[in-house]
């Protein structure tokens, strides 16, 4: 059992909670939503929310590593986010540079390895360099994988994966009869965090209850937890609370456990 962990109560108080180490999610994915709304509520520009959100990423990364989570996947920038204003997109492209410049020493100290999935070749050169450098500087770390979904979209990912499989068929490296779920899974971007390809738990902040083109294949049997907290307000205690909720779920993966009703 983990000791001295705390979660928030509905009354806004802090309550001690014990998480079951045997039921810890190995892969947690988070849709970090609400940065803009957090800023607007305070009369600040949207980019102020993104800046604060970057600091929260640091706190949640450390907390996740301390909890023994194997992979933390964060939806940092979607293929649809290019539709935002030029000013906001420019700021978002600068964030990885600022984030890794200040946080890589902490990642190394905490034995955290950086991974990035998405169409990074379309990012600005400075952003690509920051990503490449962070991956290179943490490649020998053996602890938690901090996996950023950057310029990522699940439908595009699936299309890309299907093309890879089709090319193998054309090249006579694979027959149609050999295509199965494992073939598809290995063609997707989360193969880079194997064997933890599929999240056990998906968390979305800000009260929205949709998955927004995120890990459509991989979330098939994930537990989904939605919280009203805006991402800049999200704290390690909220993560503990969400994991505690996950641990109360009865995961059957489409089957029925002996002695249990459907």
TrEMBL record:
Entry protein name? Isoprenyl transferase
Q: Which GO terms describe its molecular function?
A: ditrans,polycis-undecaprenyl-diphosphate synthase [(2E,6E)-farnesyl-diphosphate specific] activity; magnesium ion binding; manganese ion binding
Give the matching Pfam families: Prenyltransf
Keywords, A to Z?
Magnesium, Metal-binding, Transferase
Q: What family does the entry list?
A: Belongs to the UPP synthase family.
Q: Does the keyword Chloroplast apply?
A: no
Specify whether Magnesium is a keyword of the entry.
yes
Q: How is the cofactor bound?
A: Binds 2 magnesium ions per subunit.
Q: What is its EC number?
A: 2.5.1.-
Gene Ontology CC: cytosol
Question: Which residues are Mg(2+)-binding?
Answer: 33, 223
So where's the catalytic machinery, residue-wise?
A: 33, 81 (proton acceptor)
Q: Where along the chain is substrate bound?
A: 34-38, 46, 50, 78-80, 82, 84, 204, 210-212
List this protein's GO terms for biological process. polyprenol biosynthetic process
Q: Which cofactor does it need?
A: Mg(2+)
List, alphabetically, the Gene3D superfamilies matched: Decaprenyl diphosphate synthase-like
Subunit relationships: Homodimer.
Q: What does the record give as the function of this protein?
A: Catalyzes the condensation of isopentenyl diphosphate (IPP) with allylic pyrophosphates generating different type of terpenoids.
């Amino acid at each position: 059992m983990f000791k001295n962990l705390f979660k928030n109560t509905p009354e806004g108080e802090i309550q001690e909670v014990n998480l079951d180490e045997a039921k810890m999610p190995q892969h947690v994915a988070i849709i970090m939503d609400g940065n803009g709304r957090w800023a607007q509520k305070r009369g600040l520009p949207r980019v102020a929310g993104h800046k604060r959100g970057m600091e929260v990423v640091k706190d949640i990364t450390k907390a996740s590593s301390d909890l023994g989570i194997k992979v933390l996947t964060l939806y940092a920038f979607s293929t649809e986010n290019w539709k935002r204003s030029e000013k906001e997109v420019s700021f978002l492209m600068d964030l990885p540079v600022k984030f890794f410049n200040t946080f890589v020493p902490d990642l190394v100290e905490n034995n955290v390895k950086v991974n990035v999935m998405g169409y990074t070749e379309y990012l600005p050169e400075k952003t690509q360099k920051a990503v490449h450098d962070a991956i290179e500087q943490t490649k020998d770390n053996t602890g938690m994988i901090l996996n950023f979904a950057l310029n990522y979209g699940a439908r595009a990912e699936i299309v890309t994966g299907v093309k890879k499989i089709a090319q193998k068929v054309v090249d006579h490296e694979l027959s149609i009869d050999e295509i199965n779920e494992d073939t598809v899974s290995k063609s997707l971007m989360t193969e880079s965090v194997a064997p933890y390809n599929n999240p056990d738990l998906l968390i979305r902040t800000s009260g929205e209850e949709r998955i927004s083109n995120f890990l459509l294949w991989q979330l098939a049997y994930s537990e989904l937890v939605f919280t009203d907290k805006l991402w800049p307000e999200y704290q390690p205690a909220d993560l503990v609370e969400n994991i505690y909720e996950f641990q109360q779920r009865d995961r059957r993966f489409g089957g029925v456990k002996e002695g249990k009703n459907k």
